[in-house]
Amino acid sequence: MAPTQDALYRRIDLELSWSERELPERDRTKHVHRLHPYLGKFIPQLVEALLARHVPRGRVLDPFAGSGTTLVQALESGLDACGADVAAFNCLLMRVKTREYNPFVLESELRDACSRLEAFDGVRPEGDVPRFVRDWYAPRAAAELVFFRDVVSDYDHADVLRVVLARAARSARRTTHFDLDFPRTPQRTPYWCHKHRRECRPVAEARRFLRRYSLDTLRRIREFSRVRARGRRADVLHGDARELDFGGRFDGVVTSPPYPGLIDYHEQHRYAYELLGLEEWRELELGKGTSRAGLAAYIEGIAAVLANVRGSLRRGAPVVIVINDRRDLYPEILERAGLRLEERYRRHVNRRTGRRSGEFFEDVLVAR
Ligand SMILES: C[S@@+](CC[C@H](N)C(=O)[O-])C[C@H]1O[C@@H](n2cnc3c(N)ncnc32)[C@H](O)[C@@H]1O
Known about the structure:
The protein has helices at about 5-10, 25-30, 45-55, 70-75, 90-100, 105-120, 130-135, 140-150, 160-170, 205-225, 270-275, 290-310, 330-335, and strands at about 60, 80-85, 190-195, 200, 235-240, 250-255, 320-325, 340-350, 360-365. The chain is α/β, with parallel strands linked by helices. The protein binds S-adenosylmethionine.
C-alpha cells in the first residue's frame, strides 16, 4: 500500500540524525570543507549518505551548490559532479576546493607569497586602499590585505591565494568576536565580549591570519587529495540556475536551495567582493524577502530552476532536496516543476554553532 502524505511527512530518519558525539565538528568540517566559512551549508556526511542511497554512481548535479559540499563529497564518493551558483565568490571557493594540484608548486607559491608579506613594512598610501577596506580594517591590517591582494596574480595558484586572502579578511575585520556573520558597523574600540567573557579588542593586523590560513589551506588541500577518487571531476558554473545549460546528462540531483528571508548569500562574503573586485549578481539571488510577492517570486524561481534541471536528467533520475520547508512551499514548487514527490523524510539537525543553538529539523524530499 502506498504511504499516506502524513506518513511521508512525519518519518524521522535516525540514520541521518547524528548527535554531536557521533559527528563532532572536526569531522563535519574535514579537509577542504573548512577552507572558508560559509553560512548555510549542509554537512558532507549527509551528502555522503544521500549519494549512497539515491545516486550511487555516475554524475550528480547541484544547481544551488554554494560552498560546494555536494561536489567535494561526490569526488570523495567516486562520482563526477557539476555545481552551479549565482554568487561569484561561491564559485571561486568551489573551484579551489575541487581542482587537482601539484602539491609542490602549491606549497612553494604559498610560502613565497607569505615571505613577501613578511618583508612588507605594513604601510600603504591611503589612496591605494578602497573605501570599504579603510572603514572595516585597522590601517595596518588594511595595508597588509591590499599588499597580499596585489601579489596574488603573480602566481599560478592565484585563486587559492584569493581564498586565503578572503578568509583572512573575514577574521581581520573590525568586528566583535560574537558577530562575525553579519556585522553592521565597524567596532573600533575595546568591547565586552560575550563569547570570551572578557574585554576584547578589534584586530589590528592581518598578517598572522594570512600566514596561518596559507598553511591551513595547504594542509587541507593535501588531506583531500589523499581521499578523493582518481579520475573524477567537478565542473563549476557561475550563473542563474533558471537559465544555465548544465552540460550533459546527470544521474541525480542533490541540493539544498536557499529559503525565503534566511541568508543573504552575497552579503555574507561582502569583504571578499570588495577586496577581490568580484562581480555581484544580487538581483538574481533567489529567496530574498518574505512578503507575499517575495514568496510568490520564490516559488516561481525555485520551480523554474527545477524545471530547467529536469531537462538535464537521465530518465527516472532522482531529485533530492534538503530543506526546512516551514512555510510548506515545496508541494506547489514540485508540482510547478513537473516533479512528483516520492518520499519525504525528516532529520534532526544538531546545531551547536555560535549562538544559533536549539532544536531544528530539516526534510529530505525525493522527487522524480
Ligand atoms: C542553501 S545554499 C547551498 C549551500 C550548499 N548546499 C553547501 O553546502 O554549501 C543556496 C545557494 O543557492 C545560491 N543561489 C541563490 N539563487 C540562485 C540562482 N538563481 N541560481 C543559482 N544559485 C543560486 C546561493 O548563492 C547559495 O549559495
